[in-house]
Inverse folding.
């Protein structure tokens, strides 16, 4: 088992795909995806293009769909939802498909969509992701952060480190044995330093500050929690993620 961490979709190799790809956008797309599926959403379908999202979602009955759009941290006008997981209550999402496009997270998912298995990970469902890896034992694993418009983000890297550290603890392997690139070691170090104050790290992160300016403090608190949802969002067809309950 070899892990590779890539801070942004743009940094992933273009001539290959891993056996297992894990897309991470802690603030907030993958946190929202996990929350929707845990709350009983039928599926989450991701788009990088808003016009394409509208075109595809129009084919679904209105009572069976929800549209979520976010650009620059704010909700896209005309959409029912932005990108806040706290808005995704069971009453709203039960049995419905969420059609979502965000600034960064949906791009990461689309970049790795041709991998053998594609998972959406956040801190809130870290344990389910790790359990899947331990059961399936994929040979190569990419953890792909979404970053912010092509640049490094602390919150995605610390989530990658949380996954790495849990795998190290449960397999008893050394970092040298599991690390496919230097980013794995750095992500693990970041998580080791901040694991007891993830919210504090989010307050220092550039996107965390952006969300604070948008008065999304509660989103930061929610997304900084670890292992609170027993749900594994996994791609069933290109761009469509459904819940696979962790066993």
């Amino acid at each position: 088992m070899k892990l590779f961490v890539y801070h942004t979709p743009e940094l992933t190799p273009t001539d290959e795909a891993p056996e297992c790809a894990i897309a991470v956008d802690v603030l907030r797309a993958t946190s929202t995806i996990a929350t929707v599926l845990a709350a009983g959403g039928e599926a989450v379908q991701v788009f990088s293009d808003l016009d394409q999202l509208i075109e595809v979602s129009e084919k679904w009955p209105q009572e069976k769909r929800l549209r979520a759009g976010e650009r620059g941290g704010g909700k896209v006008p005309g959409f029912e939802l932005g990108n806040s997981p706290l808005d995704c209550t069971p009453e709203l999402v039960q049995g419905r498909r969420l059609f979502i496009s965000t600034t960064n997270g949906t791009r990461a998912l689309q970049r790795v969509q041709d991998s053998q298995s594609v998972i959406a990970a956040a801190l809130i469902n870290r344990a389910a992701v790790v359990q899947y890896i331990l059961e399936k034992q994929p040979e190569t694993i990419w953890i792909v952060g979404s970053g912010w418009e092509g640049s490094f983000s602390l919150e995605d890297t610390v989530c990658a480190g949380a996954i790495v550290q849990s795998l190290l603890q449960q397999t008893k392997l050394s970092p040298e044995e599991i690390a496919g690139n230097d980013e794995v070691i750095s992500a693990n170090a970041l998580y080791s330093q901040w694991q007891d104050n993830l919210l504090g790290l989010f307050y220092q992160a550039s996107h965390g500050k952006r969300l604070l300016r948008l008065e999304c403090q509660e989103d930061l608190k929610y997304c900084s929690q670890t292992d609170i949802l027993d749900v594994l969002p996994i791609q069933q067809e290109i761009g469509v993620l459904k819940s696979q309950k962790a066993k």
About this structure: The mean pLDDT is 95. The two ends are 21 Å apart (CA to CA).
